[in-house]
Amino acid sequence: MRTFCLRMVLPFVGLLVSSSLCGAQNPAWNNLKQLTPGQQVRVVVNNNKSFKGQFQSTTDDAIIIRSKGTDQTLSRSSVQLVSSRRAGHRGRHAVIGAAIGAGAGLGIGAAIDNDCSPNSIVCTGNKGKAILTPVFGLLGAGIGALLPAGGWQEVYRSN
Question: Which of 64, 117, 139, 145 is the most exposed place for a label (fewest CB within 10 A)?
C-alpha cells in the first residue's frame, strides 16, 4: 500500500514543482532575443525611470543597452517594460496617398470632361483629367508623407 501511494504521489509532486518553476520564469523575457544589437530600445524600470538607447545584449538576468555613450546593465527584476523602435513607412504612405489622390483626380477630371454638351461654356476636352490627376496625386502624396510613421512596439512587460 505504501509503495502504491508513493507511485501515485511522487509524479504528482514532481508535476507541481516543475509547473511552479516554469511559472516563475516569464517567457516574455525570451522575446528580447529577437532584438538585434544596435536596435533602438526604450526600457522602463521600477521607479518609472526610462532609458532610451541601443540594444547591446541580454542575459537571463539583465539587459544591456548603450545610452549616452556608455553601456548600462539593467537587472531583469527592475525592468518593467522594453519597447523597440519600429521602422517608419513614410515612403509607402506617400505612394499610397499619391495613388489615391491620382485616382480621385482622374475621376473628378473625367466627370468635368464628360460635361461637354454643345451649349456648355466649360468644354475642356481632356484638360480636367490632365490637370487634376497629377495635382491630386501630389496632394495625396504630401498628405501620405505627413501621416505618423514608426513608433514603439512592446517587446517585454513584467507581470
Answer: 117
Q: What is the DSSP letter of 60?
A: S
Last residue of a domain, one of 62, 85, 108: 85
The pTM (predicted TM-score) of the whole model is 0.54
Angle, to 10 degrees, between the axis of helix 127-146 and the axis of helix 90-114?
A: 160
Amino acid letter for position 61: D
Q: Do 133 and 112 meet the contact criterion of CB atoms below 8 Å apart? A: no
Residue 157 lies in a domain: no
Report CA torsion sign: 105, 136, 150, 37: positive
Same domain, 45 and 96: no
Show the beta-strand stretches assigned E in 3-111. 40-45, 50-58, 62-67, 70-75, 79-85
The whole-number pLDDT of residue 111 equals 85
Among the residue ranges 6-10, 46-50, 129-133, the one predicted with the least confidence is: 6-10
What is the number of H-type helices and E-type strands within the chain? 3, 6
pLDDT tens figures, 108-127: 988 888 876 666 666 667 78
